[in-house]
Amino acid sequence: MYRVGTGFDAHAFCEERALILGGVEIPGCRGLAGHSDADVLSHAVADAILGAIGEGDIGKHFPSGDPRYENISSLVILSEVTRMMGNKGFGIENIDCTVVCEEPKISPHAPYMEKKIADALGISPEAVNVKGTSTEGLGFTGRKEGIAAVASACLRRSHPAD
């Protein structure tokens, strides 16, 4: 049996922090505002997996008001979501992601993001695809006010849930 989930996240730029996307620090760029490390890409992946296993979203499991998650690496969140997924008897077939922004360019960093996400999920980097797109100047991403990401997760039943 297969299950598919989708995830979406968006954060505004802020000057006070580094930009982290897919667990990779992108030098020379404004960071994103958020309670955790504000990694929109990892958040979208986490939400896609949680959606596929019917467990809501990261806000349910990692609430922004909880001081335990302040500045937490979103790769830690992905690892925890992977544990939850395994407890439900599922494994990842593949992850597909799109980062929506005018800057930075995603393609030079995509292989590193794929590796970091794959490591956090315990899967091969070949099972993770990261790409970027712009909105050609439209909307908040086009005005360079922030970054958004969308992800899909295809899961397969690996064993019966405990």
Please tell me about this protein's structure.
The protein is of the alpha+beta class. It has one domain: 60s Ribosomal Protein L30, Chain: A (2-Layer Sandwich). 29% of the residues lie in helices and 31% in strands. The protein contains 5 helices and 7 strands. The chain has a 5-stranded mixed sheet. Strand 5 (90-100), helix 4 and strand 6 (128-133) form a beta-alpha-beta unit. It is globular. The two termini are 16 Å apart.
Mean pLDDT score: 95
- Main beta sheet strand tally, sense and closure: 5 strands, mixed
Q: Tell me the name of the CATH class.
A: Alpha Beta
Largest sheet, order of strands side by side?
4-1-7-5-6
Given as residue ranges, the uncertain stretches (5+ residues, pLDDT < 50) are none
Name the shape in a single word. globular
Cα-to-Cα separation, first versus last residue: 16 Å
Helix content: 25-40%
> How many strand units?
7
Number of domains: 1
Q: What is the N-to-C order of secondary-structure elements (H for helix, E for strand)?
A: EEEEHHHEHEHE
Please identify which CATH superfamily we are dealing with.
2-C-methyl-D-erythritol 2,4-cyclodiphosphate synthase
How much beta, percentage-wise? 25-35%
Helix-strand makeup class: alpha+beta
Counted by DSSP, the helix tally is 5
Global Rg:
15 Å
CATH third-level topology: 60s Ribosomal Protein L30, Chain: A
Identify the CATH architecture: 2-Layer Sandwich
